[in-house]
């Protein structure tokens, strides 16, 4: 009986281990991430929408739109879908831990041509959050994302 | 007798505006697995949205009752908010599969709001209209009637006249009271289709209905500018700025709303107006 209970508990523990502490959590990956990027508070990274004033931050959205409009080279394959790049903004306004999701218009995973995906990833990495007036919290690191709606290779929307 | 009890429970549930399921419905139907699944889902929502504990309980709920649409929908929400749209879609599709009347509207709204997926949102709204014989209801955050969402989707696809037609029809629908931003969006559409006088009238209706938005005054200013009415152009720009500085503007925690204006844009417009004088 004790053996069965142990086995049962072990199985439960194993299945619970497949869950992240929070949906969307990113863990440092030494193949992908810059080791120089540091969290200010490793115990707690919050979400962008948990700051009531985040998206009202004036310069942020306008500058994001201007930056990608000026720097994105639309001479690409004429593909459609969405590319979401999620990252962390630390308390010093540095960004890191970039993770990418690419999907077609039916929300199925797809890989865009690198002329689109690699370009957007690099542009996002290079975007100077602090200089461009992005929202920075002195107290918390937070997750943010850019979602690019791509139609015929062009960026038609940047969310959120 | 069972049907009367179920009806009473449903009516009470609706009257209280509770969006959670009433697990006792499954008990009355003698559906023990779904009753227990529903209780697991109720446990899940006691934890922080997106937390491991909540996800574990939702998965237990689904294991017990694979048709529990509510569990799929609630499990999906943090994925949507955090930008994992692939996972969100798989889950919300299951909610729609099992309870299309409840969740088609929600899927449409989320597609519009988070992804500006206008065509797919319209399809969802129209599917919902086909399967129900009552009002299609409001967006998830309560800000918009779903017909206004449909109109904004048509606007997104470039069909502005169609969008105007849908909003106008909704505004005169029986027992309908204009939403917080209906006239703002209609006014902007009129402005964008060169009906500047019509736009100004509509913005005035917005002011009467909900005078809380810098956006209304900004776009009214732009409309006056097009009519070469410099006095009202400048006056409304200053009002737009004043409202903005008092914190009266379009807000949303998750996405930048349609027709939202930022302070920078207002100030730029004012600077240009005075430098052109």
Structure report:
The complex is a heterodimer of chains A (160) and B (277). Chain A has 160 residues and is an alpha+beta fold. Chain A has 3 helices and 5 strands, in the order αβαββαββ. The mean pLDDT of chain A is 88. Chain B has 15 helices and no strands. Chain B has helices spanning 2-15, 24-28, 32-44, 52-64, 69-81, 85-98, 100-115, 118-131, 146-156, 160-171, 182-192, 196-209, 214-226, 230-245, 263-275. At the A-B interface, helix 2, strand 2, strand 4 and strand 5 of A face helix 4, helix 5, helix 6 and helix 15 of B.
Number of helices of chain A: 3
The stretches of 5 or more residues of chain A where confidence is low (pLDDT under 50) are: none
Spell the H/E element sequence of chain A: HEHEEHEE
Supply Rg of chain B: 22 Å
Which sheet architecture does the biggest sheet of chain A show?
Answer: 5 strands, mixed
Mean of the pLDDT scores of chain A? 88
Q: Biggest sheet of chain B: strands, sense, closure?
A: none
In whole angstroms, how far apart are the ends of chain A? 53 Å
Order of helices and strands of chain B: HHHHHHHHHHHHHHH
List keywords for this structure.
heterodimer; A: 160 residues; alpha+beta; five-stranded mixed β-sheet; 24% strand; globular; B: 277 residues; mainly alpha; 69% helix; disordered N terminus
């Amino acid at each position: 009986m004790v053996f069965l209970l142990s086995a049962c508990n072990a199985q439960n523990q194993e299945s619970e281990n497949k869950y992240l502490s929070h949906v969307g959590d990113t863990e440092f990956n030494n193949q992908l991430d810059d080791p120089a990027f540091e969290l200010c508070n490793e115990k707690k990274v919050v979400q962008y929408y948990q700051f009531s004033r985040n998206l009202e931050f004036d310069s942020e959205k306008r500058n994001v739109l201007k930056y990608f409009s000026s720097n994105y080279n639309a001479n690409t394959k004429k593909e459609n879908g969405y590319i979401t790049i999620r990252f962390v903004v630390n308390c010093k306004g540095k960004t890191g831990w970039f993770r990418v999701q690419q999907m077609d218009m039916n929300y199925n995973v797809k890989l865009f041509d690198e002329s689109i995906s690699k370009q957007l990833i690099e542009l996002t990495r290079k975007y100077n959050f602090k200089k461009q007036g992005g929202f920075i919290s002195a107290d918390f690191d937070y997750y943010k994302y850019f979602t690019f709606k791509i139609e015929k290779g062009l960026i038609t929307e940047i969310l959120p | 007798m069972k049907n009367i009890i179920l009806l009473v429970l449903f009516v009470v549930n609706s009257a209280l505006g509770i969006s959670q399921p009433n697990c006792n419905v499954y008990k009355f139907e003698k559906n023990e697995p779904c009753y227990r699944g529903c209780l697991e889902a109720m446990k899940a929502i006691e934890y922080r949205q997106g937390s491991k504990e909540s996800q574990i309980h939702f998965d237990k709920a689904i294991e017990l009752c694979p048709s529990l649409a509510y569990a799929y929908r609630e499990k999906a929400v943090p994925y949507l908010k955090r930008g994992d749209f692939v996972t969100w879609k798989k889950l919300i599709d299951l909610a729609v599969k099992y309870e299309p009347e409840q969740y088609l509207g929600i899927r449409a709204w989320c597609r519009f709001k988070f992804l500006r997926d206008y065509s797919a949102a319209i399809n969802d709204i129209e599917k919902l209209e086909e399967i129900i014989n009552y009002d299609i209801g409001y967006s998830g955050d309560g800000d918009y009637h779903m017909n206004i969402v449909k109109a904004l989707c048509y606007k997104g696809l470039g069909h502005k006249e169609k969008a105007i037609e849908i909003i106008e029809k909704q505004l005169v629908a029986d027992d309908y009271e204009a939403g917080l931003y209906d006239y703002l969006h209609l006014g902007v559409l009129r402005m964008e289709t060169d009906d500047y006088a019509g736009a100004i009238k509509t913005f005035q209706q917005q002011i009467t209905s909900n005078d809380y938005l810098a956006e209304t005054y900004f776009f009214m200013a732009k409309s006056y500018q097009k009519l070469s009415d410099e006095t009202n152009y400048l006056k409304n720009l200053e009002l737009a700025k004043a409202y903005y500085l008092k914190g009266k503007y379009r807000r949303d925690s998750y996405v930048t709303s349609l027709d939202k204006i930022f302070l920078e844009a207002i100030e730029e417009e004012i600077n240009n107006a005075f430098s052109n004088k």
